[in-house]
Amino acid sequence: MGKESRIVYLNGAFVKEADAKVSIYDSALMFGDMVFEMTRSFRKKQFKLREHLERLFASIKYVRIPFQMSPEALEKICQEVVDRNEPFFEHDDEHRLMINVSRGPLSIYASVFGGKLEPTVIVADFPLRWTVSGMGKLFDVGINAVIPSQRAIPANLLDPKVKNRSRIHYMMANIEVSNWVGENNWALLLDPDGFIAEGTGDNFFIVKNDMVITPEGRNVLRGISRGYVMNELGRQLGLRCMEKNIEPYDVISADEAFMTGTPFCLLPVTSLNGTVIANGRVGPITKKILDKWSKKVGIDIARQIKKWDDATPPHILKTPSPYHY
């Protein structure tokens, strides 16, 4: 069955993926006025879906979208989308849900819609391998984090704790880093005070003297994976974890570094701007956390992504980077 047969939930209806359309007058298009979440499954079971939805509803409340659906109802829709799409997934595919909520069409265009204005709600589902294609080798060689000129937007201007679609600063950072010489380059943003903030869709950690340290949750998106490492895996492994301001100097002098994000879970960072961190290899604590994560979800995370890389047809672009130009 073709990919065009996948099903999307859109404003109360289940439609074919190719037929899912958003109005040209939607506030998401006009202002980037949309909040969202993206999840993944392990062995076809959604991971931390409730936590993602709780953050989504916090974002909805913060930006004052008049959304009437309950978290329980949206969770049920998410599961139905997964169930409807399972027949179109290969046996080893995982489900990558994309949940978008916008304010809907702007009021000045109300006449186009017969005076009825309501939020736009979309739940789509596609293979996780689309997102992680080419990342397999990074589990062995690590990421070269690159600090671009683009800074993170601080909370007093546009709170990054609200997961929103107004992300052109991420795009500009990725475009700049895509021109960096070499391979495996991922953007790592500083905040306006010069402290490490976050990647363009991932959180950052260093390890120093067996302490796992991540930037304070002030000017970053407080990732679900970030919280899982800090509050669950770290505790279960007996690791000391803390939030703290980190400068580039601290990264260069760290014992280890890694990034966390929903699709790939955890990837080592072995250099910053081309300068190796420690011995330039994947560190023992990084490996310990990833191994624990794999054990908890019943999947060898690195092996799964590497296997997908090997199975990707030659004509499909494989690049171990969030974006490519």
Search tags:
alpha+beta; D-amino Acid Aminotransferase, Chain A, domain 1; 24% strand; 16 strands; five-stranded antiparallel β-sheet; 325 residues; 10 helices; 2 domains; D-amino Acid Aminotransferase, Chain A, domain 2; nine-stranded mixed β-sheet
Describe this structure in words.
- It is a single chain.
- This protein is of the alpha+beta class and 325 residues long.
- The protein folds into two domains: 3-127, D-amino Acid Aminotransferase, Chain A, domain 1 (2-Layer Sandwich), CATH 3.30.470.10; 138-311, D-amino Acid Aminotransferase, Chain A, domain 2, CATH 3.20.10.10.
- 30% of the residues lie in helices and 24% in strands.
- The chain is built from ten helices and 16 strands.
- The strands form three sheets. Strands 8, 9, 10, 11, 12, 13, 14, 15 and 16 form a nine-stranded mixed sheet that branches. Strands 2-1-7-6-3 form a five-stranded antiparallel sheet.
- Strand 15 (265-272) and strand 16 (275-276) form a beta hairpin.
- The mean pLDDT is 94.
